[in-house]
Amino acid sequence: MAAFSYQALDSNGKKVKGILEGDSSRHVRTLLREKNLRPLDVELSGDTSKSSEDKQRSFLAGFTRVKMNTSELALFTRQLSTLILSGLPLDESLQAVAQQTEKPRLKAMVLDVRTKVLEGHSLAYALGGYPKVFDGMYRAMVNAGEQAGFLGVVLERLADHTESSQYTQQKVKSAMVYPIILMVVALAVITGLMVGVVPDLVKVFNSRGAELPALTRGLIWLSDYLINHGLITLLAILGGIIALQRFMQTPARQMWLGRLKLKLPLVSKIVRAAETSRFSSTLSMLVASGVPLLQAIRISAAVLNNPVLKELCQEVAVNVQEGGSFGKALENTKAFPPLFVHMVSSGEASGELEAMLSKVAQNQERELEMTLTSLVSVLEPLMIVMMSGIVMTIVMAILLPIMDMNTLV
Questions:
Q1: What is the per-residue pLDDT for 51?
Q2: What is the H or E stretch that residue 332 is in?
Q3: Reduced 3-state DSSP string for 215-263
Q4: In 10 A of CB 184, how many CB atoms?
């Protein structure tokens, strides 16, 4: 069976669209009529090509561009794990999840995964057609769960991990909302003063013919510049940012930026805590799901964002493959926190590596959360002081010539 997109008319003459599984377009049309729908168009994709093979290739190519955000992935994983743990067969579980999905492209993706499962492929293989949705860690855990016969339990762990990541991201974003709003409002007020108020005052000062203080002259120059060249400057800054991002896309420059992040005092602490938490939590889940340690290290290294740490973790995998100790290999990198290295070594010695990795992940997440909370708590009053200082400077630049005029009078 394959997934077909359709357009049909309901009993009220309203056009409806959706995705439906069937053996052929004729079968889908029959199913639509059984639902009291009058089919208008049924095809594998929106491609207007007459070749069914071209349509199928285009349809499947469209699948590879399907994306899920963190909340959607967490919901999909949680629904699937719940259904499988309740004893429902995998194909029926996927069918039920597809029926609960509202977005047509996501529904089509789930139905396509179900089709591959019905054809005899494993779930991990079926998910491999969507690498942008299900990364290597996700597919490796699903594969291990299928082989061990604990797919529901593994999916439940994945759901917990995804929901935890979503919670952390939302917390960081929520913490940054107030400073961003404060900065935008302050910039709007300053720009309004510079563009709307200062030019009117300049006319008054010029009519008096008095010599203006240096601070006032500088304010007038900045106001004139913003009025005449402000938009061009803004576009130039945005263009420079985009050009810099593209310039830094090469592996060598990314590596240089990764090294720089690991050297800057505050940034280094945040990056190391975030990457260590990501690496240890991923590794813990993979090991707990039955993935071999060597493969788990390589998969966990691939989910890191910093290219320097990613390369060091790949070297750790090589050392472990050659028979070395995991803890000793991590220690030789001199890139991870000492607590992480010590707990990994203890876990290796005691045979409780999974538990130790889980504790390290929780510890690093707490440390990262505390660091970000402290940073935001310092950033808020600092921004208030900075913006207050800028506004006060503008006000002083306006008041100084007025006070001089009063003195002359």
A1: 39
A2: helix 326-333
A3: HHHHHHHHHHHHHHHHHHHHHHHHHHHHHHHHHCCCHHHHHHHHHHHHH
A4: 10
SS3 category, 15: strand
Tokens of 156: 């439940």
Q: Provide the whole-model pTM.
A: 0.59
**d(C-alpha 18, C-alpha 345), whole Å:** 54
What pLDDT is attached to residue 53?
40
CA dihedral 318, 324, 325, 326 (to 10 degrees): 0
Name residue 253's amino acid: R
CA neighbor of 115 nearest in space, from 85, 95, 141, 99: 95
347 token code pair: 């876990």
- Report phi then psi at 158, rounded to 5: -65, -40
At residue 236, the pLDDT reads 92
The helix/strand/coil state of 300 is: helix
Q: Which residues of 132-154 are buried (b: 16+ CB within 10 A; e: fewer)?
A: ebbbbbbbbbbbbbbeeebbbbb
Q: How would you label 200-214 residue by residue, b for 16+ Cβ within 10 Å and e otherwise?
A: ebbeebeeeeeebbe
> Between 367 and 238, where is the model more confident?
238
- Over residues 61-77, the mean pLDDT reads 72
Q: Return d(Cα 2, Cα 231) in angstroms, integer.
A: 53
Report the candidate in 259, 283, 295, 274 with the shortest Cα–Cα distance to residue 337: 274
Mean pLDDT of all residues in 123-146: 82
CA dihedral 299, 302, 305, 308 (to 10 degrees): 110
Pairwise CA distance, residues 382 & 376, whole Å: 10
Q: If 0-12 CB within 10 Å is exposed, 13-18 middle and 19+ buried, where does residue 333 land?
A: middle
Instruction: Give the per-residue pLDDT at 353.
Output: 82
The dihedral region occupied by 361, where left means phi > 0, alpha psi between -120 and 50, and beta the remainder, is: alpha
Whole-Å CA distances, 241 to 230, 252, 267: 17, 19, 20
Q: Is 45 helix (H, G, I), strand (E, B) or coil?
A: coil
* Cβ 76 vs Cβ 144: under 8 Å: no
Residues 6+ apart with CB under 8 A from 23: 1, 2
pLDDT for the residue numbered 285: 76
